[in-house]
Design brief:
Blueprint lengths: L16 E2 L2 E2 L10 E7 L5 E7 L5 E7 L7 E6 L6 E2 L7 E6 L6 E5 L19 E3 L4 E5 L7 E4 L5 E6 L6 E6 L4 E6 L7 E2 L6 E7 L5 E7 L4 H12 L2 E3 L4 E6 L6 E2 L7 E6 L5 E6 L4 E2 L4 E2 L4 E6 L6 E2 L7 E6 L5 E6 L10 E8 L1
Antiparallel strand pairs: 1-2, 3-30, 4-5, 5-6, 6-7, 8-9, 9-11, 10-19, 11-12, 13-14, 14-15, 15-16, 17-18, 18-20, 20-21, 22-23, 23-26, 24-25, 26-27, 28-29, 29-30
Length: 353
């Protein structure tokens, strides 16, 4: 389960751009940002594409081939050899490679709910994100030797791995709350990192494993706190604003990078460890509706909250940015496929510092 299921706005279309230019307007000098965008997937709905440590493969989730919920796939970095590696039953999400690339990890309802779990009933204009009973599994890269490494009543998902230490960081439901934890790739040595009422999710270790970036929302009044607890008791979360934070790997020295009421999410690191990339609708304020709109763009920011740069400029959806380990490319999800404007696909682009 990921925050991509949190908002209906994530079904809108997108065209990638660079700074204040579209791809087509970019000059041969390759200005700062993205260029040479290539589409890698053409079937179904796809998201959360993450590089292998050697930069030769990408693991991602996809709903295709008649499946009613997401499965996990691996492909080569050029989009070839796309094949499913998760169980073909239940909901599967949030996949990643291990440090040595000898294992993969992902969240799955396999063994708990082998059909696609039911979603909460709509409540007026509220969009509700279901907390499916995910557990975290590891497997060989071909999907064999499936082993449950995190079993906990409720939601356990959003795992990523430090390619320096092999440590796994993830979101887990505890005491009617969602907090960040870390563990070894075999599920041992579980440590709690955050302890703050509200949503903590989407965590990533920095390249040197000394910092963590994540997305969060913390209720700041009694009414919001009560609403959060009531929804957690119902295994659901209401769509809320999200901010990007960084902290030490120990959980200390938390710094809020984005300070707006928009939805800022899907953060990850530049390989230099000094910058964070993320997705946000911060520049799509609808004055008439009094709310942020559907247009999510990619942004970069320094780890002290300064130097915000907009990386894409269009009227459609961009998200899940992740740099290749060498920093030369970026994978991301978008709706820029002109033939299937409502489908989310995986793209890769050259990165120009």
């Amino acid at each position: 389960m990921t925050i991509k299921h949190l908002l209906p706005v994530l079904l809108v279309a997108l065209i990638i751009g660079c700074a204040a230019q579209t791809d087509e307007a970019m000059s041969p000098e390759k200005p700062f940002g993205l260029s040479n965008v290539q589409q890698l997937t053409f079937l179904g709905d796809n998201g959360e594409a993450y590089w292998s440590p050697d930069g030769q493969q990408i693991i991602f989730q996809s709903k295709r081939d008649g499946h009613a919920c997401d499965k996990i796939y691996i492909m080569n970095a050029d989009g070839s050899d796309q094949h499913m590696v998760s169980p073909d039953v239940g909901a599967n999400t949030c996949s990643y490679f291990s440090m040595e690339q000898e294992r993969i990890i992902f969240a799955s309802t396999f063994g708990v709910v082998d059909s696609c779990p039911p979603r909460p009933k709509p409540q007026g204009n509220k969009y509700l994100w279901p907390l499916f009973p995910y557990d975290i599994y590891s497997a060989n890269p071909d999907g064999s030797d499936l082993v449950k490494i995190r079993e906990n009543e409720g939601y356990d998902a959003e795992p990523t791995v430090s390619y320096l230490t092999g440590r796994v960081i993830f979101t887990s439901e505890i005491e009617d709350d969602l907090e960040l934890f870390s563990m070894n790739i075999d599920g041992s040595d579980v440590k709690r990192i955050t302890n703050h009422l509200g949503y903590d999710g989407g965590p990533y270790f920095s390249p040197n494993a000394e910092k963590i970036v994540w997305r969060a929302w913390y209720p700041d009044n009694a009414e919001d706190s009560l609403r959060w607890r009531e929804n957690m008791a119902l295994n659901q979360v209401e769509a809320v604003p999200l901010s990007i934070y960084v902290m030490d790997a120990t959980g200390e020295n938390q710094v809020r990078l984005t300070k707006n009421a928009a939805t800022n999410w899907a953060p990850s690191w530049h390989p230099d460890g000094e910058h964070v990339v993320f997705s946000s609708n911060m520049d799509d304020w609808n004055e008439e509706a009094g709310a942020y709109g559907h247009n999510f763009e990619l942004y970069m920011i320094n780890t002290d909250g300064t130097g915000l740069k907009r990386l894409t400029n269009n009227s459609y959806f961009d998200s899940f940015p992740m740099f290749s380990p060498d920093g030369k490319h970026m994978a991301f999800a978008s709706n820029r496929d002109a033939e299937n404007p409502r489908a989310t696909h995986i793209f890769v682009a050259d990165w120009n510092d």
